[in-house]
Structure formats: structure tokens, C-alpha cells
Amino acid sequence: MTAYETILVESPAPGVGLVRFNRPSALNALNSQLAAELFDALEGLDADEAVRCIVLTGSDKAFAAGADIKEMQGTDAVTMVAGKDFTEWSRFTRIRKPIIGAVSGWALGGGCEVAMMCDLLVASETAKFGQPEIGIGIIPGAGGTQRLTRAVGKALAMEICLTDRKLTAAEALHYGLVNHVYPVESYLQEAIALAGKIAAMPGVAVKLIKDAVNKAEELSLHDGLAYEKRNFYLSFATADKSEGMAAFVEKRKPEWKHR
Fold it and tell me: What's the whole-number average pLDDT of the chain?
């Protein structure tokens, strides 16, 4: 397994890969090294046939407290346009297996944006979500104005981005930003358990569902239904379709092949 400096990669349960941000002295602030290591780890897990669901987490104190401002301070617009630091985050969204974010403590700025890139979110009761970029004279640049608006609606997203309002875990659950909230002592294990439940499902169908649900945010209903039907037809080409239907008819538990 590759040795990383800013993240840790673990296998906490069958079929589950765990990636943990590991910059505790900086509250897991996202710098270019962490991003590069994160993409490499996620792509490796995506290619690993033994892994069928991924959990992404930080520490109990901070999921990620934002981008590394010291690294960004000397950057100008021309350099950013010419570079690829922010466009590289599209690599995260190309991961085909579900990613569950396990969030505790601060998830601010880029940290909040990374959390929202995940497919499901499990939060601890101490989680705080926010987009504080306005306070340093810039705006969210990795999806904060877009994914947050889709998740919680225009009015609340506008307030969060314009006034640096923080969402508590309870508020995030109420507005549909997260799936579940648990005590800080158990949120990570609950996220791993949820990942294990998904990992036990037929792997190809899981990928097709993730793909179709994500398309729902981008397509019209007409085009989205056509895309769903495409993936539905594709699922009939899998060994798991044959096994699942045979098991249903024979009243037994299916033995998934994940192909």
C-alpha cells in the first residue's frame, strides 16, 4: 500500500476502504499535497475489486477546516487560470464507487465543499458546516455556491455564503445536507457500518445507481429518465441480475459476484 504523508488509508471492514485526512496541526486544511494524495488514494480504491464503498473522514475535531490559505495567499488569477489546482477536483467526482463522508467538527470552505462532493454524509453532533470565504475577500471555488444551493435551497445557501453562517449538525440534517447524525463517539463506526451495508450489495448495480442519481442534478426530467432507463437496461447484462432474480424465485439469499 502506498505510504502517504497527509492522509491515512485503512481497511476497517470487508469491502470498505477508509481514507482519513491527516494534517492535525492544520485542522486538516486542504493543500496541494493532500489533494494529490487524496486523488491517488481514491482512484486506487476505485480500481480495487475488493473495495465496494469508501469512507472519507478527518478527525473528531475537524473534517477539514478549509483550504490552506498560506498556500493560496501568493496566488494570482492568471496563475490559477493557467494551473489546474481547482479543476483537479473533478477527479473526486469521477470515482464510480459510493463515497460516504464521515464529518465531525469543522467542515469549512473547501472542507465543506469536499464533504458535499461525497455521495452520503454521516455527521457527529459536533459537526459545523460553512463557507467562510467572504471573510477573506473571495468566494467559494470548489462547488460551495452550487452544491450547497442544490442541497439546502437558494435562500439558506445565500445566507451561509454572504454572512458566514455556520450550520450545525442538527440543522444540516433538517435541511437535507446530511443523512444521519450520531454522537461523536460513534459517528465513524456508523459511517463504516453504512458503507458495509452498501458494500454487501451487487457492485455493478451500486455503480449504476450512483451514476444515475448524480445525473439527476444535471439533466432535465425527460433526459434523466432516459439516462436511468439506459442504466436499467445495462443492469440486465450483469451476472448479479441473473443471480438476484434466481435467488428471489428460489427464496434464498443471493450470492453476489459483483459483475
Answer: 94
pLDDT category of residue 87 using cuts at 50, 70 and 90: low
pLDDT of residue 83: 66
Residue range(s) in the chain whose domain bears CATH number 3.90.226.10? 7-199
Q: Name the grid cell of 177.
A: 445536507
Which distant-in-sequence residues (6+ apart) come within 8 Å of 24 by Cβ? Answer: 59, 61
Higher pLDDT, 86 or 35: 35
DSSP category for residue 225: H
Catalytic residues: 67, 110, 113, 133
The DSSP H or E segment spanning 52 is: none
Q: Which of 87, 82, 92 is nearest to 115 (CA)?
A: 92
What ranges in 130-182 are assigned the alpha helix state H? 147-152, 154-163, 169-174
Query: What CATH architecture is 7-199?
Result: Alpha-Beta Complex (3.90)
User: Can you tell me the distance from the alpha carbon of 233 to that of 14, in angstroms, rounded to the nearest whole number?
Assistant: 29
* Dihedral pair phi/psi, residue 32, rounded to 5°: -65, -35
- Give whole-number Cα distances, 160 to 113, 115, 255, in Å: 13, 16, 46
Q: Which CATH class is domain 203-250?
A: mainly alpha
